[in-house]
Amino acid sequence: MFFILSKLLSVFLFPVCWITFLLIWRWLAKSPRIKKRLMITVVLIAILFTNPFIYRSLVKIWQPPVHSLSTATTFETGILLGGLSNYDKYDRGFFTDASDRFIQTANLYHRGIIKKILVSGGTGNLLQREPPEADFLKEQFIANGVKERDIITESRSRNTYENAVFSKHILDSLHSKPPFILITSAIHMPRAEVVFKKAGLDFIAYPCDYKVIESRFDFNDYITPDVTLLKKWSWFIKEIVGVYAYRLTGKA
């Protein structure tokens, strides 16, 4: 039920949806004063959520710092969270712009820092029509030179909470030795951390796929309105709301 509700309610986290709703309301409204106020609200939302400086500043605060791991230290298992690939209508897998998760996990394995990779990812689609993401990622790791015996797949999870619960069950059954390395996007790591801690897993966070980095100053990166941020804000808001939703429901 939590999974279904979270999918249905997530539409209300999109600034584009807020703007659309307000414009429809303005179109239906009879009062000129209400129409004016609604239009002002739409403009303010558009200005706020397309401003690169505001977005970059808040995301940099939210993202945890880069964590470097020395090759002198090894860990038994790295846990890679899904959400970095998609299937097309022919069930062919493709990497998304979060593919840095895959790259960093493969690097940790090939550098000898992690001995095994636990890929945790079923399908987050509400209708559950495509194959588990873990299956595609396993194929890609094997193609990347990772030994099949070093890949563990968890293909039932649909969200971060289930990632944690099902991963712990597998690791406990295999008597795997902690601490583990938790690998996911930097913007997703704060939510993943609280959920995995609640599940009782001992791990070291390894954030990657940074959406905002400490780059050299560029006027356009801070001032020029960027409409693509409307979608990026949706992902950021989802992470913030997700942390509090999991805490309210006792999952974090």
How is this structure best summarized?
By secondary structure, the protein is α/β, with parallel strands linked by helices.
Please characterize this protein's 3D structure:
With 252 residues, this protein is α/β, with parallel strands linked by helices. The chain is 48% helix and 14% strand. The chain contains ten helices and seven strands. It has helices spanning 2-9, 15-28, 32-49, 52-62, 100-110, 133-143, 160-173, 189-198, 219-222, 229-248; strands at 75-81, 85-87, 93-95, 114-120, 151-154, 180-185, 203-208. The protein has a five-stranded parallel beta sheet with strand order 5-4-1-6-7, sandwiched between helices. A two-stranded antiparallel ribbon has the order 2-3. Helix 6 (133-143) links the parallel strand 4 and strand 5. The protein is elongated, with a radius of gyration of 20 Å.
- Whole-number mean pLDDT: 92
Number of helices: 10
Rg calculated over all Cα atoms:
20 Å
> Uncertain regions: pLDDT < 50 for 5+ in a row?
none
Topology as H/E string? Answer: HHHHEEEHEHEHEHEHH
SSE map:
Elements: H1 2-9, H2 15-28, H3 32-49, H4 52-62, E1 75-81, E2 85-87, E3 93-95, H5 100-110, E4 114-120, H6 133-143, E5 151-154, H7 160-173, E6 180-185, H8 189-198, E7 203-208, H9 219-222, H10 229-248
Parallel strand pairs: 1-4, 1-6, 4-5, 6-7
Antiparallel strand pairs: 2-3
Helix pairs in contact: 2-3, 7-8, 8-10
What are the salient characteristics of this protein?
single chain, 252 residues, alpha/beta, five-stranded parallel beta sheet, two-stranded antiparallel ribbon, 10 helices, elongated
